[in-house]
Amino acid sequence: MSQTLTGIAASAGIAIGKAFSLEMPDLTVEKQSNVNTDQEIQAFDDALETSKSELEKIKEKTKRDLGDEHAEIFSAHLLVLSDPEFVDTIRNKVKDENINASFALKEVADQFVTMFESMDNDYMKERAADIRDVSTRVLAHVLGKPIPTLTEIDEEVVIIADDLTPSDTAQLNKQFVKGFVTNIGGRTSHSAIMARSMEIPAVVGTKTVTDDIIKDVIVIVDGLEGAVLIDPSEDELAAYREKQNQYEEQKKEWAKLVHEPTKTKDGEHVELVANIGTPNDLDGMKNNGAEGVGLYRTEFLYMGRDDFPTEDEQYEAYKKVIEEMDGKPVVIRTLDIGGDKELPYLDLPEEMNPFLGFRAIRLCLEKDDMFRTQLRALLRASSYGNLKIMFPMIATLDEFRQAKAILEEEKEKLVAQEVKVSDDIEVGIMVEIPSTAVMAKQFAKEVDFFSIGTNDLIQYTMAADRMNEQVSYLYQPYNPAILNLVKMVIDASHAEGKWTGMCGEMAGDEIAIPLLLGLGLDEFSMSATSVLPARSQISKLTKEETKAAAEKALTMNTAEEVKQYVEEMFIK
Question: How many distinct structural domains can be found in the chain?
């Protein structure tokens, strides 16, 4: 009889294949004293160099297959292996305590991992995962027990693992690896995000899959519902093959919409655009039929390097995106560093809660040399197409006025130097802070547009860190409180003849889409792979029915009531 496990649907699709258990070698180490420290340090240094070489190859493969944004993960890994605070601590421990390199490495890595995991923010937890991944690789080489490579798989399988590291995921060949299932992980982990880009069905966070699996047993991965069937019956196999076929047919239907405009059933157009991290994401965006760029996250230009990008480097990156979009809108967000994203070369103060601290526009207004460099690059690139500039994390009108004044100053300087700058740049803000939503009427008189960043707006409104599992139940995009804030922003913009977009996860959520359409959202910005399913869904909805549904949802008491209502009304 089959066994069913439930987990988190991390990457959509249905996969059926033989279980392939990713078994790590035994990397247990014991402390050895009175060693030859020179030999131990040499062994550690050799393992470092081998690991760097492997990671460079993985980075290049990832860049080739998935683009710069995903390859930056491995830039971060390589930085760890060049970080004196990490590697010198290990070497010094070997010398000072006269112990074996493998034990010193394990102790130092564990200390770093524990330190980062105890910090309550997303970036630090990801940093812990990075350190665990790279230190495991180095330790395996020190011990002479190389990590199994997934590139050699040559039959159709489903990977079963405690977790998949980014370097594991980057090696997957989707011709043979049909899906994967892990004990731990979430939708926002590196491996889940990469799986979605590669279109490999995945279920994560099952807790027990490695204990429950038997070698070579058939496994079904339902990445649509978050279910895993172990040793399914013939009837179950037949049912899931049918579900798999239906999903593949659905994808073919979606593919027909690539060059179609996004219109409701009653003919009303809405703008469906994509979020990108680097110019290399443009191909995926165009292949999925996005009508523009709704959010270009410029911080990826600043990450995985030793110093700030120059004005010319930034100009070339912005110009490439704006030019390639050929007149379609390109919304570029100014630097959003801090919170869950840090730069090793930018010495930021340690904060109790960096998400509520010195970040984004607050940092840019303080360090205005860095900000002015970026604004000049944007202004120079503006003449190549339809640029819209967006400031993140705006809490007060004063902040917006300051940022816009700096932009105007830099524009005047460039014009005085006879540098060509567009006269038609819209300047807007991210609405991520509840105070901004509440003050939307006042903001709407001065900004050209709003883009609602729901990931932060929800966590700030509900006072619930979205990465904290103990309060994750409060991360409620359908909560009437959130819907009412969204309505306030949209209504305020429309009263002034302005427009409102949304660039958080909520914009591509099938439950949220009918409500957002009914509330009058003008632009939906989402990951590229969500564009066609959203376009298909919107084409089946009318403005009248969604408006009535949104009005009713605003009066409801709980997120669960709203969800059930939308499912009954629109999700057949």
Answer: 3
Active site residues: 190, 503
pLDDT of residue 26: 83
| Other Cβ atoms closer than 10 A to 561 | 14
Last-in-domain residue among 86, 118, 142: 142
Q: What are the structure tokens assigned to 543, written together? A: 């403005």
Q: Which residues of the chain fall below pLDDT 70?
A: 1, 69, 116-127, 188, 190, 304, 338-355, 466-469, 572
Dihedral of alpha carbons 85, 88, 93, 99, sign: positive
User: Is 57 within the bounds of a domain?
Assistant: yes
Residues 126 and 191 in one domain: no
For 420-449, the pLDDT digits (tens) are: 999 999 999 999 999 999 999 999 999 999
Query: How far apart, in whole angstroms, are the C-alpha atoms of residue 343 and residue 349?
Result: 12
Q: What is the pLDDT of residues 120-157, one digit of tens each?
A: 445 556 667 788 888 989 999 999 987 777 777 888 99
**Domain check: are 42 and 184 in the same one?**
no
| CA distance between the termini of the chain | 30
Residues 13, 338: Cα–Cα separation, whole Å: 34
Range of the domain at 111: 37-142
Is residue 303 in a domain? yes
Q: Helix (H, G, I), strand (E, B), or coil: what is residue 395?
A: coil
Neighbours of 478 (CB within 10 A): 23
Cα–Cα distance, 489 to 498 (Å, whole number) = 11
Question: What is the Cα–Cα distance from 36 to 42, expressed in whole angstroms?
Answer: 10
User: Quick one: 534 and 395 in the same domain?
Assistant: yes
CATH number of the domain at 137, please: 1.10.274.10
Strand partners, 4: 229
pTM here? 0.74
